[in-house]
Amino acid sequence: MNRILSQAQKELAQFSRDRLTVALALILPLGILLIYGYAIRLETKNIPLAVQDFDNSPLSRTYVERLFATNQFIPTPLAGTSPLSALDRGTAKATVVIPPTFSRDVAEGSSTVQVLVDGTDVNNARVIQNSIRGVTNFFIQSLPNISRPQGVIPRIRIWFNPGRQESLYIVPGIFGVVLWVFPSMLAAISVVREKEQGTAIQVYASDLSSTEWLLGKGIAYWLVAVAEALGVMLVSFLLFGIRLKTGPVPLLLGTGIYLAAAVSFGLFIGARTGNQNGAVQGTAIAGFLTSFLLSGFIYRLENIPFPLSLLSNLVPARYYIVLTRDAFVRGTGWPGVWYVPIVVGLIGFLLFKVASKILQRMQLLD
Questions:
Q1: Cα–Cα distance between 249 and 315 in angstroms, integer?
Q2: HSE-CB of 249 using CA atoms within 13 angstroms
Q3: Helix (H, G, I), strand (E, B), or coil: what is residue 38?
Q4: For residue 229, what pLDDT is reported?
Q5: In the predicted model, is pLDDT for residue 277 greater than 90?
Q6: What residues have CB less than 8 Å from 87, skipping those under 6 apart?
Q7: Residue 139's closest CA among 60, 72, 74?
Q8: Predicted confidence band of residue 157 (pLDDT cuts 50, 70, 90)
Q9: What per-residue confidence (pLDDT) applies to 320?
Q10: Helices (H), the chain
């Protein structure tokens, strides 16, 4: 145990002497947090909408006001006599055409409004279609003295995030990406640097086992990862206003295990590669892309096609993001996330064992 702690102390001393690495380790995660936290927006807003009102009556103008009262659309000039002119020029994403008999038809109980939507972006077109349909239904229900059948009237209530703050969804997901990529990258570079400088040969020739050597490095960079996690979460508390919705124990325990798994992944990449460029590319491709695309951070896991859906089960960020979103949004506690530390810990343990076996084989060969 003393040899492991001595190895960890040596790693921390080397890390602290490299001021550039220290700055990058602490500043880059905060930079990614700020970029993703402020730049990623999943709710479509400020959609340019053109209106061609042939009726120009108080009722039609009230309907138009309802459309823009949602704060989802912004008015855009029609830019011509044709309803397609604004779509053709790209100045509007949709055009609403109100017929000249709109008020009379509504009074008689039926009217038709034409909506032309730019379908270039399928998701955006679906949002526009559903939004205009919802506004139209609300407008019809608010009309007095209009005979219409009373159907099922849904009363929708949003749980966990009633204010629909996107930061409560995005920022906890960023934790899973940032706290996986940077600790693993630092650990991988540390192992590869020993190979490039030739100091790994001294380890091979000594009585220090590969497991002890990796444990020393792992403890050192786990402590660095803890500092990164504290910095990222503190900034998130201050800038994005996220707060814990449940007890801190699941988050603290799960974060500690997740950081250990991230460091183990970096040790595995470092054991498999022979230069720092390969280590950076390995953690960037195998670490960043999987944690970004296959973790449920932005895209729903149910939408991942086969066979990538099977690979997503091996991505630790998938499970950690469930834990962070529960801690900061849902607040169910252990009943909802009990399996996360178990699965992440098992994946991290397997990565560490494989890295240890690789270095042990190299040690025996040398």
A1: 23
A2: 6
A3: helix
A4: 95
A5: no
A6: 93, 94, 95, 116, 118
A7: 60
A8: confident
A9: 96
A10: 2-17, 19-39, 58-69, 85-89, 102-108, 122-141, 167-197, 199-205, 210-239, 249-272, 276-282, 290-293, 308-311, 316-325, 334-337, 339-365
Q: Which helix (H) or strand (E) element contains residue 98?
A: strand 94-98
What domains can you pick out in the chain, each with its CATH number?
2-40+164-365 (no CATH), 47-141 (3.40.1710.10)
The secondary structure element, H or E, covering residue 47 is strand 47-53
Q: Which amino acid is at 188?
A: A
Place of tokens 């002119």: 85
Q: Give residue 88's pLDDT.
A: 83
Q: How many CB atoms lie within 10 A of CB 363?
A: 18
Question: Buried b / exposed e across 159-170, counting CB within 10 Å, b at 16+?
Answer: eeeeeeeebbbb
Q: Give me the pLDDT at residue 18, please.
A: 80
Percent of the chain with pLDDT over 90: 31
Q: 51 has which bridge partners?
A: 96
The pLDDT-based confidence of 204 (bands split at 50, 70, 90) is low
Give the pLDDT confidence score for residue 141 in this predicted structure.
79
How many other CB atoms are found less than 10 A from the CB of residue 110? 8
* Average pLDDT over the chain, rounded to an integer: 85
Whether 163 has a pLDDT exceeding 80, the answer reads no
